[in-house]
Design a protein that fits this description.
With about 950 residues, the chain is an alpha/beta fold. The protein has 33 helices and 24 strands. The strands form five sheets. It has an eight-stranded mixed β-sheet with strand order 3-9-10-8-7-4-6-5. The N terminus is likely disordered.
């Protein structure tokens, strides 16, 4: 079987004549060979020509003739021309093999506990090259090992092994861009994948390793048994991040935004981001528990600091993150995008997002794929991300890769976005530095992402109370024997004469003394983090003339833009609204809210899976010219053409993701407090796929971390008979999360209400997330309309009084309180049945509960006997369970309280229209029943 596999390999030497014939056929007609061979040959086409030029490849017969001519003139390969040509092709195949799979034979594992499987294709014999060929000189075209045109096969093999099989190994051959592939070949091969370091730089590496190890040992001895998720075994991460900042600054970097899970977080906080060790010790000692309502464990916390480098200061931010490992990644992307925008045109080159992953999480957590997929999109790109994998080779308790992934490397997911991968042995910090320099320079040159796979281990298991050798005896025997990266590197520098044993001991002593001094220092005054850009200016309400003027500009379309007939009809309707000959609908009021903010200097960013048009074709913020001939051109956005000095308006059709996109917008909003940032779900319950973001960031960040955020969520909500997945935004879930004024939950029913609600959200000084249950059928409901005057003269009303109830309030015996679309069904029932002793009150804000406003409204009805809460949702869902206690508190003494809801249900709605209509009618009727 092995021989069969060997002989069918495309690199097998005896197959060379067969390959030549296939290649001749491919060059004549690509479809004449199989898809597998097409893929391989097309990859070869991207490589520079044998003569070093950029010319397209030619038939092999021409190449063979060239080698034959070389032989006649005494060039390399004296002897028969065709045999030598075949040998040269075999050499090229050997070079390709090293570039393609050399990493699998690299010296990457610090433990050497699981030997690599030998790869025959990395041996010359596999390609038909024998001992007699080792001193033969072959062409070195398309290599960068030296300036010579030829080298012996022995020299080539040595150079290939040094470059692709050392402690730093690269994967890049799958990159589609030949310029990028050539960039990697040149950088790796010309340096043999080794950095050029001065003596001072090497001593600095030792100092950083000493700090990384020293902190862990100090914490281990001082806080015995406390969880800290030690970095021991991966101390080179601190060297890696230090070099990112230093070399990044030399390449124009002004800031980095880090996201990471638990492992090594405390070390990064202290030794990279700049959190004082004193503050860290106080958290261990429980001296900061009074600062926040809830707080969080120390290895979830973030921090921001400034690092000084020879090339200037670099702002370093570590984002807060809950135990949901990788969900911070899209948050980091949003923060980086926002910070880059604040810097202007070159911002993306100056701000670097860094995601630090665990090995098993890298291949196992879907949010990583979603976030990578965001990386180069129009509305969410950040100019390339540095992905760092702390590869402990074990995950949680798993050491067998067959239990952790279906790929060879945990980093293979990066090939989704053609990100090159640099695998590096954490025991060789100089190789780590080389990897960082390559990564930074590649990202600077191409604005693309790159992955550094830091192969290391973890000394104490998953956490310090773990006993990992129960399940991993072989691995942990190897770990027990390992002296540590600092010790290994110190011995190397001693051997090279750069430091003495005494100097090494001094490094340790000095850092230990620093920590001891911090530990014994007076308790410092701790403060909460200060969010960026939180200054809000009070916005004056726009005058009616201003609103009319904005409405005219919003409905003016350049003559060169030909609209689709349906869009043209919509715009004609909006022109009527601007002229006050037609009532405002939801889409126009939303546009006017955005326009009023933009002209007052408040930016607006809207993102969702179909946000340009709107899921229900109600928005049309972007108008598409029906005559366009080039994809992506011919788009006109009226909200971007209001005034020369207006703020920025951005609307983005996002990828088909809820978790990553919502988290991105959350991260963006955390930085851009000067903007209204909105995420829109296609249907409200699609947000279920982002529940981690909602629960752990949006709802709880202020209580846990002291972080405030003004993100707005648009969640289409309402029973329309379209099935369970298109019915409910799960209002009850958001109300269950409400506490300590953490979020706002509103369900506006009129265009004027959404206008005022959005303006309130953009200007209130205390930033809190806003959850809006947006309508579907109400987008075009004839009764759900407003007038231009309502926008100029008014505010957002938390409770809407019954404008159509009897003028004699004393005649009202019952008040039906409701929220959302059901109001219009109740209104229609009252009219149809001639009911005149029932008032219908709308709660437009459900949290914070509008107790004062509702109390004032109920006081109007002096003979009130009953208050009914009516909702479309089943009784176990919707608002009823969450607000019942609040309703009882405002209930007049002589009145009773009951509900009118669908019966409890495991599903949010029926899947049959007839069933929906029957249930809806029953709910509405029951609200009026005695």
């Amino acid at each position: 079987m092995m021989m069969q596999n060997r002989r069918t390999s495309f690199l097998f030497g005896e197959n060379t004549p067969y390959i030549e014939n296939l290649y001749e056929s491919y060059l004549a007609d690509t479809s004449s060979v199989s898809a597998e061979w097409q893929h391989y040959f097309s990859a070869l086409q991207g490589l520079p020509a044998v003569d070093g030029s950029g010319k397209t490849d030619v038939a092999h017969s021409v190449v063979i003739e060239r080698f034959a001519d070389m032989a006649k003139h005494g060039r390399p390969g004296n002897g028969a021309s065709l045999p030598f040509a075949r040998k040269q092709v075999a050499v090229q195949a050997l070079i390709t093999a090293f570039r393609q799979v050399g990493a699998r034979q690299a010296d990457l594992d610090p433990l050497h506990w699981s030997p690599a499987t030998p790869l025959p294709e990395l041996k010359p014999a596999f390609h038909g090259l024998g001992d007699a060929d080792m001193n033969t000189r072959f062409s070195t075209a398309d290599t960068y090992f030296s300036g010579a045109e030829t080298a012996t096969l022995n020299e080539l093999v040595s150079a290939l092994e040094q470059t692709y099989c050392g402690t730093l190994a690269a994967e890049y051959l799958y990159l589609a861009d030949p310029v990028q592939r050539q960039w990697w070949q040149m950088r790796l091969e010309s340096s043999r994948a080794k950095p050029q370091l001065t003596a001072d730089q090497r001593r600095h590496i030792l100092e950083r390793l000493t700090a990384a190890e020293g902190l862990e040992k100090f914490l281990h001895n001082r806080y015995v048994g406390q969880k800290r998720f030690s970095l021991e075994g991966g101390e080179s991460l601190i060297v890696l991040l230090d070099e990112v900042i230093r070399h990044g600054a030399a390449n124009g970097l002004k800031g980095v935004v880090l996201g990471m899970a638990h492992r090594g977080r405390l070390n990064v906080l202290a030794n990279t981001v700049g959190k004082p060790a004193r503050a860290l010790f106080d958290e261990f000692d429980g001296k900061t528990a009074h600062l926040l309502p809830a707080g969080d464990v120390k290895y979830h916390k973030g921090y921001s600091g400034t690092a000084s480098t020879p090339d200037g200061e670099v702002e370093v931010v570590l984002a807060f993150n809950p135990s949901h490992l990788e969900f911070v990644n899209p948050v980091v992307q949003g923060m980086a995008r926002a910070r880059a925008e604040l810097l202007g045109e070159q911002g993306q080159r100056a701000i670097l997002p860094i995601e630090i992953h665990g090995d098993v999480a890298m291949s196992g957590q879907g949010v990583i794929m979603e976030t990578m997929n965001l990386g180069y999109t129009k509305g969410h790109g950040t100019g390339g991300t540095l992905h760092i994998v702390i590869n402990n080779q074990v995950g949680f308790t798993t050491s067998d890769p067959r239990e952790a992934r279906s790929t060879f490397y945990c980093t293979d997911i990066a090939k989704l976005i053609e990100a090159p991968v640099l695998h590096v042995n954490a025991d060789d910090p100089e190789a780590v530095v080389a990897a960082v320099r390559l990564a930074i320079e590649y990202r600077t040159a191409f604005q693309r992402s790159v992955v550094i796979d830091l192969v290391c281990f973890r000394r104490h298991g998953h956490q310090e109370q773990d006993t990992p050798d129960i399940t991993q005896p072989l691995m942990y025997r190897a770990i027990a024997r390992h002296p540590g990266a600092r010790s290994i590197y110190a011995q190397k520098l001693i051997a090279d004469g750069l430091v003495t044993p005494q100097q090494v001991a001094n490094y340790e002593h000095d850092y230990r003394e620093y920590l001891a001094a911090q530990s014994d220092a007076d308790v410092e005054q701790h403060t909460l983090p200060t969010p960026a850009n939180t200054v809000r200016h009070e916005l004056a309400a726009p005058e009616l003339d201003e609103i009319r003027s904005m409405a005219q500009r919003l409905t003016t379309v350049p003559g060169a833009v030909q609209l689709h007939p349906l869009v043209g009809k919509m715009m004609a309707g909006r022109r009527d609204m601007a002229n006050a000959t037609r009532a405002l609908d939801w889409g126009m009021a939303e546009h006017l809210a955005f326009a009023s903010l933009l002209t007052q200097g408040v930016g607006v960013r809207l993102s969702g899976e179909d946000s340009e048009r709107g899921t229900f074709s109600h928005r049309h913020a972007v108008l598409n010219n029906q005559l366009r001939t080039v994809r992506g051109e011919g788009k006109y956005t009226p909200l971007q053409h209001l005034a020369p000095d207006q703020a920025a308006f951005s609307v983005n059709n996002s990828i088909l993701s809820e978790a990553a996109v919502l988290a991105f917008e959350y991260g963006y909003a955390s930085v851009r407090g000067d903007s209204l940032v909105i995420w829109e779900a296609q249907f409200g319950d699609f947000a279920n796929g982002a529940q981690v973001v909602i629960d752990n960031f949006i709802a709880a960040a202020a209580s846990k971390w002291g972080l405030h955020n003004g993100l707005t969520m648009f969640l289409p909500h309402g029973q329309e008979g379209q099935g369970p997945e298109h019915a409910s935004a799960r209002l009850e879930r958001y109300l269950q999360l409400c506490a300590e004024d953490n979020i706002q939950v509103c369900q506006p029913t009129l265009p004027a209400q959404i206008f005022h609600l959005l303006r309130r959200q953009a200007s209130q000084p205390d930033r809190r997330p806003l959850v809006v249950m947006t309508p579907k059928s109400l987008l075009r409901h004839p009764k759900a309309v407003s007038q231009l005057e309502d926008l100029a003269d008014g505010r957002f009303h938390e409770v809407l009084a019954d404008a159509e109830a009897s003028e004699n309030d004393a005649g009202i015996r019952k008040v039906i309180a409701c929220s959302g679309k059901v109001y219009f069904d109740l209104l229609e029932h009252r009219r149809t049945h001639g009911v005149d002793d029932v008032a219908i009150v709308r709660l437009e804000q459900l949290y914070p509960f509008p107790a004062a406003a509702l109390t004032a409204e109920l006081r109007r009805y002096g003979k009130l006997q009953q208050l009914v809460w009516c909702q479309e949702e089943p009784r176990n869902q919707g608002a009823w369970k969450a607000i019942e206690e609040n309703l009882r508190k405002v209930l007049p003494a002589a009145a009773s309280l009951r509900d009118a809801c669908r019966e409890p249900s495991a599903s949010t709605a029926p899947g049959y229209m007839s069933m929906h209509l029957e249930q809806q009618a029953r709910v509405v009727a029951s609200a009026f029943d005695a």
